[in-house]
Design brief:
Distance between the termini: 31 Å
Largest sheet: 4 strands, mixed
Number of strands: 8
Order of helices and strands: EHEEEEHEEE
Number of domains: 1
Radius of gyration: 14 Å
CATH topology: 2,3-Dihydroxybiphenyl 1,2-Dioxygenase, domain 1
CATH class: Alpha Beta
Helix content: 10-25%
Strand order of the largest sheet: 1-4-3-2
Number of helices: 2
CATH superfamily: 2,3-Dihydroxybiphenyl 1,2-Dioxygenase, domain 1
CATH architecture: Roll
Structural class: alpha/beta
Length: about 120
């Protein structure tokens, strides 16, 4: 059986700021593009992996009250949390253990979305 989650669209109000934030916090490439009349920032990914994009415009609106999307910061959670804070994120719940599932930080990104950073280890 494949992944239950196959794609995500994360709303943003300022694409350039969002690309800068997520590329630095997650240490990944994000590619700016146009798709069906919307500006998107596609997270670098490989075939058969969960992927997604940042979306600006249309009926997409950032929210701190909806779903909680977990981003991988495996082995660098402390660094990712610090970088997020430096780039304007509001840390709602600093790095903490989530039982046998590792560690997470919950934050509000500069666009207004509540997201989590996840790591299997305490680093």
């Amino acid at each position: 059986m494949g992944h239950q989650v196959v794609w995500f669209d994360l709303p943003v109000v300022n694409m350039d700021r969002a690309i800068d934030f997520y590329s630095k916090v997650l240490n990944t490439k994000i590619f700016k593009s146009e798709f069906m009349g919307a500006t998107i920032g596609v997270f670098g990914h490989q075939e058969n992996t969960v992927a997604g994009c940042l979306v600006e415009g249309g009926d997409f609106k950032p929210s701190k009250d909806g779903s909680l999307l977990y981003f991988c910061a495996n082995g660098r959670l402390g660094q990712a949390e610090s970088t997020a804070k430096e780039l304007g994120a509001e840390i709602l719940i600093p790095k903490h253990q989530i039982g046998q599932h590792g560690y997470r930080t919950v934050l509000i990104d500069p666009e207004g979305n509540r997201v989590a950073l996840h790591s299997n280890s305490d680093s």
